[in-house]
Design brief:
It is built from eleven helices and four strands, in the order ααααααααααβββαβ. It has 208 residues and is α+β, with helices and mostly antiparallel strands. A hairpin with a 5-residue loop joins strand 1 and strand 2. Helix 1 packs antiparallel against helix 7 (86-95), helix 1 (3-21) runs parallel beside helix 8 (108-126) and helix 3 packs across helix 6. The longest helix has 19 residues, at 3-21. The chain is globular, with a radius of gyration of 17 Å. 35% of the residues are buried. Residues 11-98 form the Mycothiol-dependent maleylpyruvate isomerase metal-binding domain. It holds the Pfam family MDMPI_N. One of its GO terms (molecular function) is isomerase activity.
């Protein structure tokens, strides 16, 4: 995918996720996500933070958090999730589908990863069988490397990831197999529900 294709994929991902969010029940909005400590509504609020806070506001919020990026994003996600309606949280994504925002670290692929992974944080936790289109997955699988694993806190020492639904593998060691999008979550430091991964190392990557 070239730059134009990736931007189109980002816009499509945001619109599709917004449509999905509109179908959730109140119980699902308050259910835990794969992001530790965040419900679905905090994840949804976080996903649109970059669209809604101009750079001066972000820098001010970061200063209030004493330079702690995770402290800042956690506080803003909780605040926005408490003040915005579920309809507004979905609309934030839909209305900014074509916004050029990208995370401060990484390129345009990182922006796609931000949306895809947080979307999976929601759908996998809720047991919703949404399949991320293969072309989007392949872009993100191609960015998995030692630097990205370290950034996301993914410990794959002695583990080889191998997708069982497309031709992709990464690493060396004991084989961990599963759907490509589930292995992508593992590469982004997530623990996922049981039954989705196979192989001797699977217990290391499953939600307790």
């Amino acid at each position: 995918m070239d730059l134009v294709d990736i931007r189109r994929a980002i816009a499509a991902e945001r619109r599709e996720l917004a449509d999905l969010l509109d179908t959730l029940t109140a119980e699902q909005w308050d259910a835990p996500s794969l992001c530790a400590g965040w419900r679905v509504r905090e994840v949804a609020a976080h996903m649109s933070m970059g669209f809604r806070y101009p750079l001066p506001a972000v820098l001010w919020e970061l200063a209030k958090a004493r330079g702690g990026l995770h402290r800042m994003t956690d506080r803003l996600a909780r605040k926005d999730a408490a003040t915005a309606s579920t309809g507004e949280l979905a609309a934030f994504l839909r209305d900014h589908a074509d916004h050029p925002w990208k995370p401060p670290v990484g390129g345009i692929e990182t922006a796609l990863g931000h949306d895809v992974i947080h979307g999976l944080d929601i759908t996998v936790a809720l047991g919703i069988d949404r399949r991320v289109p293969e072309e989007r997955l392949r872009v993100l699988l191609g960015t998995v490397n030692p630097k990205s694993l370290k950034f996301f806190g993914a410990d794959l020492d002695g583990v080889r990831l191998r997708a069982d639904d497309l031709d992709w593998s990464y690493g060396t060691g004991a084989e961990l197999t599963g759907a490509a999008q589930d292995l992508l979550l593992v590469a982004y430091g997530r623990r996922i529900p049981p039954g989705r991964l196979h192989g001797a190392p699977r217990a290391r990557f499953v939600v307790a």
